[in-house]
Design brief:
Blueprint (H helix, E strand, L loop, with lengths): L4 H10 L23 E3 L6 E4 L9 E2 L6 E2 L4 E4 L8 E2 L4 E10 L7 E9 L20 H10 L12 H4 L10 E5 L9 H24 L3 E7 L3 H13 L6 E5 L8 H9 L14 E5 H13 L5 E7 L7 E6 L4 H7 L8 E5 L6 E2 L13 E6 L14 H5 L6 H9 L3 H6 L10 H5 L6 H53 L14
Parallel strand pairs: 1-14, 9-10, 9-12, 10-11, 13-17
Antiparallel strand pairs: 2-8, 3-5, 4-7, 5-6, 7-8, 13-14, 15-16, 15-17
Helix pairs in contact: 4-5, 4-7, 10-13
Length: 504
């Protein structure tokens, strides 16, 4: 059977003949807040803190309704290894612990801790600072980062301390600070680099000590020259002359971890592998600044910079926001009262999630809130096999084939086409002339595959339990039979009865 051009292109990508770093799209960046300095958002009358704000297991509340808490106090402890704690963003009173809406496509809720601020903003005694971290055991520093609740603020939300564990079989050669921020509208990382570069560099030095990387690169897109200048000056002042600030072409999704690593190192992270397997570590600049706060000040992650923008936002801004602040409170602060004909989303327009409930709170992963005027969506039409989606996929997948398999519930085939390598960047949907919501199909497929895996795991566990029960019953039968035989063998043999004499 003849191979289509898009199939040949995908095969070349999979063979490594075409660099994935060259894939991507060029949407209008719309960085209207790029020149706006970061300001502090006021405290809301009520803070809502979901017990899971990271990848992994949810935390367990360690406070009760009616308790008084202080700023920085741990209110939910981590459960399991892939988990990190949650802290009170301010002082106040816990009013209740119950389910509340979160940012999720389904609109589901999550158990959340509600705190009513007292207005005093009193700190709990912070963890001991580690200004002498270079003389500390790296394990001690990682534990401080874990205790302070640091998770990846670039969107992945993976507990940071896990990425910093040294693997004796895979030495980190290149440490990359990700300052790309390629999503349209978002500028929170950009402003952080411009205004707080010394703090980011302090975090970089801590990371470098932990992983002992030979090479360090700060990656910034070339549409942020002021951020690059600020980082170069901060590196110079910190005596980090060997750290490279590298300007990269502006293209989406340049900030995707695997694409960025290939751009910097020239090596691809194999499917199913992690960056450490090729000697690379990538950290977001906001996460790096939070690491500096945790190690040098003992300060937990209780706030983050959030971009509020969009074509329907009356007063765009970059705000330093306490985690747990309801989105609708921020919208009102920025002058957005009438939401008729407005769609609100968390994150950028390419990978963000539409907010079904505007009282959902800001969490550790909230880098932006966009208010966009609703536009008529073009109806989906059949795929015309143009191959545009294959050309722009930064992971080298075949989105048209994947979507076909997911739409028709052919999940084994979708896994064979590396469904779980999709980073859901939305580049394929962006260029599709047939207006096929490709990423929606991928998310559906991933959810269904995950459900099938859970069902299979449950069925396997049930089978093992059933087999164990049958084996136990059989073993008990054999043991009973053995005991009966043993009792029979232990009984003395009956004395023989002499025959009666015959009568004469």
């Amino acid at each position: 059977m003849a191979m289509h051009s898009w199939q040949r292109l995908g095969a070349k990508w999979l063979a490594g003949l075409i660099p994935l770093a060259e894939a991507g799209v060029h949407p209008d960046d719309c960085k209207v807040t790029a020149s706006l300095a970061i300001t502090d958002a006021p405290l809301p009358p009520l803070l809502v803190l979901p017990i899971r704000q990271h990848i992994g297991q949810a935390c367990a509340p360690i406070v009760d309704a009616g308790d008084t808490v202080l700023r920085g106090q741990k209110i939910a402890k981590s459960q399991g290894y892939v988990s990190t704690s949650i802290h009170a963003p301010t002082s106040g009173r816990v009013v209740k612990i119950e389910e509340h809406a979160i940012v999720h496509p389904s609109g589901i809720g999550m158990l959340s801790i509600f705190i009513e601020p007292d207005g005093e903003d009193r700190w709990l005694e912070k963890l001991p600072a580690m200004a002498d971290y270079a003389q500390r055991d790296p394990a001690e520093i990682r534990e401080q980062i874990r205790s302070c609740g640091i998770a990846g603020l670039g969107g992945a939300l993976f507990p940071t301390f896990i990425k910093l564990v040294r693997d004796p079989n895979h030495r980190i050669e290149t440490l990359i600070l990700n300052g790309i921020e390629c999503e349209p509208w978002l500028t929170c990382d950009h402003r952080l680099m411009v205004e707080d570069a010394p703090r980011i560099v302090a975090g970089l030095k801590i990371l470098r000590y932990l992983v002992q990387a030979e090479r360090c690169v700060v990656a910034i897109e070339d549409n942020k020259p002021d951020a690059a200048a600020a980082m170069r000056e901060a590196l110079k002042q910190a005596g980090c002359a060997d750290v490279e600030v590298r300007l990269l072409p502006t293209i989406y999704p340049q900030g995707s971890e695997k694409q960025l690593i290939e751009t910097i190192t020239g090596r691809q992270v194999p499917a199913g592998k992690l960056p450490l397997h090729i000697g690379a570590l990538c950290e977001n600049v906001a996460t790096t600044a939070a690491i500096a706060d945790a190690v040098l000040e003992g300060k937990p992650l209780i706030e983050r910079v959030v971009t509020l923008s969009g074509d329907a936002m009356p007063k765009p801004a970059n705000l330093r926001v306490r985690i747990g602040t309801p989105v609708d409170y921020l919208l009102r602060q920025q002058g957005l009262e009438d939401l008729h004909g407005v769609e609100v989303m968390q994150g950028g327009p390419m990978m963000g999630e539409r907010l079904r409930h505007l009282d959902a709170p800001i969490t550790k992963g909230s880098n932006g809130i966009l208010a966009m005027r609703q536009q008529a969506r073009e109806p989906e039409s059949p795929c015309i096999r143009c191959g545009h989606c294959v050309q722009v996929c930064p992971v080298g997948l075949m989105p048209n084939e994947l979507a076909s398999h997911c739409r028709n519930d052919r999940f084994e085939e979708s896994e064979a086409f590396n469904l779980f390598d999709c980073i859901e960047c939305g580049a394929c949907s962006y260029v599709c002339p047939a207006h096929i919501p490709l990423v929606h199909y991928f998310r559906y497929g991933k959810g269904q595959v995950a459900a099938i895996r859970r069902a299979n795991a449950f069925a396997e566990l049930s089978r093992q339990r059933s087999e164990a029960r049958e084996q136990r019953i059989q073993r008990e039968r054999e043991e009973k039979a053995a005991r009966r035989r043993a009792r029979s063998a232990a009984k003395p043999a009956p004395s023989p009865v002499p025959p009666k004499a015959e009568q004469p």
